[in-house]
Every structure is written in structure tokens, then in C-alpha cells.
Design brief:
Helices cover about 30% and strands about 20% of the residues. By secondary structure, it is of the alpha/beta class.
């Protein structure tokens, strides 16, 4: 019988590395009767990280809950805010030439009209009426965004909700919180550079060569080294499959700007299309994160900066955007031998629908589900790689949909989007089908994130069905639609009356994360909340000061098997 994996080594920090550390040490060590899996994270002290994933999707709520991180602690430590959906501006033009706007909400009312999809009723009777678009007709989120409401009451417990939500978060602070949690739960943190690696007869990595410590034996390696992909794509030479023929954008500008009126904190991410791409706007509690995702074929860096700052107007005074090159695509295989790439090192698709952290989470869940032993059964690797390929292609298709269905023609970029972008075969087949009828759940045999609801909302929002005629609408009754409209308005009014202001809700939640001051505290301040996993030991952070590692405190010994160097 093959030996189980007992050591997992993560190379690289940031969101991907520290999320992997917390996830693995928490999920693999739940049973006290089993020997623990030792998790080590090796992080270069010389390489900055790219702040990935300041906006998230709704699965983030369940992830944090499963990792036993209190929501109030997360909100307070990461300056997080709530996200009820994505608001798209100027991606398309209305018939009169004015910019169109629609929301991709996270929660729907989940009802049918006499057994029929309400979208058919909306198509026949609702367009141009009191409900602005399909998202407004089928979800309360648009009204709540407009009214600046939160998704829950202040009295509800962590992770409870009235309407579905995700988060905006400070990526740097989030990585810091995850690092703290990981070390408290037994992860060994090593600050060192990986200069080389050794391989065994199978071609597996047997040891990493660290700059200061020399050879570091490994069993399973998680590559979280970002776009550089130092292990999987550089050392192991795994090919990279570019998505450039499907998606033009290959650069981003990023900047942080202050709030002008934080009391009106918007509970959504905004995506506003410009002449050669689009601008994100992520409103955190403490600031606004914004940037321009664009194509270097149609804008030089300076041209993009000028266009972006013009868009920001007075908000961008004094801003100096950082230019970030992006590799859009994926490694052909994200699991090779005993190395698995997680995060940017495995692939990246532009952040239009905030999928980066979800892809990290999926990679980790599937690893835990199919954790190999030291024999590394090829069937497990093949299944894992198949899933990851499917996820990247699903996200690629949904992002490509936003461009391929746009009716903008007002710049060389938007003209080329229509005439030059390739349509993935998996999407081409669906679009041909959906010109005849609306998307249904059965159209998605394998869907990890975006199902018929998301496609339905986007296609209606982008006027894909303006000229469509559906046989299914022939027997519908207009009176049924108006009764539905009245019911929807009552649901929205009830939620608006019950749910608090978004900013005020966050303030109430943040207060829960702050323990009462301790009178005997020498500094007069209460300590930061600790979030260890019950039953876990305390890890050791190894850093370098004048070439020597810091000694761990005597009162907090390392977890069993941690290396003290």
C-alpha cells in the first residue's frame, strides 16, 4: 500500500499561497486521530505580489465560513464591503445611441409564472415598462444597489443573509489575515528564495534548492508564484495555451482613490467600457480600487493612462496608475508530476466577473477531493486537469460573451472585437441555440460557476433578444405579467424597508470584531482577534534578520514536525 502524503510545500505567498495554506491545513487536519499533514509555505522576501481578487463571487461567503474565519473579523481586518452584483455601463448602446446599463445580480426571486420562465413574459410584455431590465425584473438586487442597502440586517449572524452577496476586499490585507490564520493553525512560514530544484527518476521534484538553506525535500509542491510560474511553466516547462484569439486585453492599469462620500458606499462592482477595454470600480470600506483593463494593440501605456484619468476626472487628480502586463490563458496542465499550480501560475482570465479567487478555491477543493498518495496515480491527475481545463474554458466563454454580443462600433477596438475575435466552439454552439430560445439549465452539462441564470441576464442586458420572436410567448397572458410585476415591487419594497444602509451595516459588523478593551492592558489596547482552528498547534514563521532566523517564542512551540532552522 502506497504511503500517504504527509508534507505539502507551497511556493509563493499572496492571496493564492496563503489561501492554499489555510485551506489545506484546515481541511486536511480535521481528524485528531490521524497524523497531521504538515504544510509549509516558502515565500521570497524580495518579490512583490500582484493584488489579485479585490472583488469576489458569492461562493466566497461559504468558503470563509468553512474555514472558520468569523465574518466580522474578515470584514474589519480586510476593509471589506458587500457586493450584490456587477453593474455594466456603456458596454452597449440603446437604439437611441445612449449608453446602456444593466446589472448581473447574485440573487433572484426564483419564481415562475404559471410554470413558465418569467423572462419570456418580460420579453413580450415588460420591455420598456417600469422594470428597467431583466435583472431588475427577476432580482431585488438592482433596487438594493440603487438604494445603497446591505444584504442582511445587523442582527443576523455571520454569513446569514436576506439576499445573496459576495465581497469587496483589500487583497493585501486579506493575504495578511490568511497568513496569520495559517501560522496559528500550524503552517510553517519560510522566507527564502527558490533558486533551483532537484528531480527524481520519475521526473518528480524531490527537493527545492533554497538560496539560504540549500536543499529542501518535498513530497507535493503547490506553485503559487504568480505570472512567473517559476516551477510549473518555467522549471517543468509546461506549455501555456494563450486565449488571445478570444480576448484582446493584455494589460491593466491599477490605482487606489479615496472615497468622496463613503456613507453612500455602493454595494456592487462597476464595469464601465471605454475605447479599448473597460474600467473596474471596487468600493471598499476604506477606499476605492479602480483600474483599466485594455489591449496594448489599440492603446499604448500612455494613451491608456490618459484615457483612464480622463474617465476618472477630478477623482483621479494626482493618481499614478501602475501598469500590469497580463498573460491571458492557462497552463496546458495545472498538475504535472508532483507539482500543482494554483492561482496566476496556473492561468488567468481578465477580471471582468471577479473569478480569480473562485478559481483558486476550486483548484484547492479538487485537490483535497483527489489528494494523491506518494504513487501519484495518473488517473487522479488526468481528472484534476480535465476539471481545471473545463473551469478555465467556462470562464473564458462567459467573459468572451460580453464582447461578442456588444453592439458598440465607435472605436477601432470595438470594431475589431466584432470582426476579428474568435468564438470558442463551445460558445458558438450555445449562441446559435439561444437565438431560437432562452438558455435553460439543461444546456449546461458541466457548469462550475456560470449557469443559465448568468447567461440569461447578460444576453437580455446586452439587447441580444431585441428582435427575437419566441413561439413560447404566444400563449402567455399579459395580466399574469402585470400581477407578477406588482408582486416583485412588493418584495423589493419590503427588503428596502427592512435592510439597513450598506455603510451603516458594515460599521455595525466591524464593531463585533473588536473585543472590549482590557483594563490591565499595558498599552491600553485590546489584542487582535485570533482565529485558530480548535485542536491545531501553532506554527512558526521563519524570517531573516542579519542572515539568521528568528527564534520562535518559547511559549508557542511549533506544530509536530515543523522544521526549526
Amino acid at each position: 500500500m502506497a504511503e500517504p502524503i504527509r508534507e505539502i510545500t507551497i511556493v509563493g505567498g499572496g492571496t493564492a499561497g496563503w489561501m492554499a495554506a489555510v485551506f489545506l491545513v484546515t481541511r486536511l487536519n480535521k481528524r485528531p486521530d490521524k497524523p497531521p499533514v504538515r504544510v509549509t509555505l516558502i515565500e521570497s522576501p524580495n518579490v512583490p505580489t500582484v493584488g489579485v481578487g479585490e472583488a469576489t463571487v458569492p461562493g466566497m461567503r461559504e468558503l470563509l465560513k468553512q474555514l472558520a474565519i468569523p465574518e466580522a473579523t474578515f470584514m474589519e481586518r480586510c476593509n471589506a464591503s458587500f457586493k450584490l452584483g456587477v453593474r455594466f455601463v456603456n458596454w452597449d448602446k440603446r437604439p437611441d445611441g445612449t449608453p446602456a446599463c444593466y446589472d448581473h445580480p447574485f440573487d433572484g426571486l426564483g419564481v415562475a409564472i404559471q410554470g413558465a420562465n418569467p423572462a419570456y413574459h418580460y420579453h413580450r410584455f415588460g420591455r420598456g415598462g417600469r422594470l428597467a431590465n431583466l435583472g431588475d425584473a427577476l432580482s431585488p438586487s438592482t433596487r438594493l444597489i440603487d438604494e445603497r442597502r446591505g444584504p442582511k440586517t445587523a442582527e443576523q449572524e455571520d454569513y446569514d443573509y436576506a439576499v445573496g452577496y459576495a465581497y469587496h476586499l483589500d487583497a493585501g490585507l486579506f493575504a495578511g489575515l490568511l497568513r496569520e490564520v495559517a501560522v496559528e493553525r500550524g503552517v510553517l512560514h519560510v522566507l527564502d528564495d527558490v533558486d533551483d530544484l532537484e528531480r527524481d527518476a520519475r521526473g518528480h521534484i524531490s527537493a527545492l534548492t533554497l538560496r539560504r538553506r540549500g536543499p529542501w525535500p518535498v513530497e507535493l509542491v503547490i506553485d503559487c508564484t504568480g505570472f512567473r510560474s517559476l516551477i510549473l511553466q518555467t522549471a517543468l516547462e509546461e506549455p501555456f495555451d494563450s486565449f488571445s484569439k478570444y480576448l484582446f486585453n493584455d494589460k491593466a492599469l491599477a490605482v487606489q482613490i479615496p472615497h468622496r462620500d463613503v456613507s453612500g458606499l455602493e454595494p456592487c462592482t462597476r464595469s464601465t467600457a471605454l475605447g479599448a477595454g473597460w474600467v473596474w470600480r471596487v468600493p471598499l470600506y476604506s477606499r476605492i480600487g479602480t483600474g483599466y483593463v485594455f489591449s496594448s494593440r489599440f492603446r499604448s501605456d500612455q494613451e491608456a493612462i490618459d484615457e483612464f484619468l480622463q474617465h476618472l476626472g477630478s477623482e483621479g487628480e494626482g493618481a499614478e496608475p501602475r501598469v500590469i502586463p497580463m498573460r491571458i490563458g492557462r497552463a496546458r496542465r495545472t498538475w504535472v508530476g508532483n507539482c500543482i499550480a494554483v492561482g496566476l501560475s496556473g492561468g488567468f482570465i481578465e477580471p471582468l466577473e471577479s473569478t480569480a479567487i473562485f478559481i483558486i478555491e476550486a483548484a484547492l477543493r479538487w485537490l483535497v477531493a483527489d489528494l494523491p498518495d506518494r504513487d501519484f496515480d495518473p488517473a487522479l491527475q488526468a481528472r484534476y486537469n480535465e476539471r481545471m481545463q473545463g473551469l478555465y474554458e467556462e470562464v473564458r466563454d462567459f467573459i468572451a460573451l460580453h464582447y461578442l454580443t456588444s453592439n458598440r462600433r465607435d472605436s477601432a477596438y470595438w470594431q475589431a472585437v466584432q470582426s476579428e475575435l474568435a468564438v470558442p466552439e463551445s460558445l458558438k454552439t450555445k449562441l446559435a441555440l439561444w437565438r431560437e430560445r432562452l438558455p435553460v439549465e439543461a444546456d449546461f452539462e458541466r457548469s462550475y460557476l456560470f449557469g443559465y441564470w448568468s447567461y440569461l441576464i447578460v444576453l437580455f442586458g446586452k439587447h441580444f433578444y431585441d428582435d427575437a420572436v419566441f413561439a413560447e410567448t404566444e400563449g402567455l397572458q399579459e395580466a399574469e405579467w402585470h400581477r407578477f410585476e406588482d408582486w416583485v415591487e412588493r418584495q423589493k419594497a419590503g427588503l428596502v424597508a427592512r435592510l439597513p444602509n450598506h455603510f451603516e451595516l458594515i460599521n455595525r459588523i466591524r464593531l463585533r470584531a473588536r473585543p472590549a478593551p482590557q483594563e490591565d492592558s499595558a498599552l491600553g489596547e485590546a489584542p487582535r482577534p485570533s482565529v485558530p482552528l480548535p485542536g491545531q498547534g501553532v506554527g512558526v514563521r521563519i524570517s531573516w534578520k542579519q542572515g539568521r532566523p528568528e527564534e520562535p517564542p518559547v511559549e508557542t512551540p511549533p506544530a509536530e514536525g515543523a522544521h526549526l532552522l
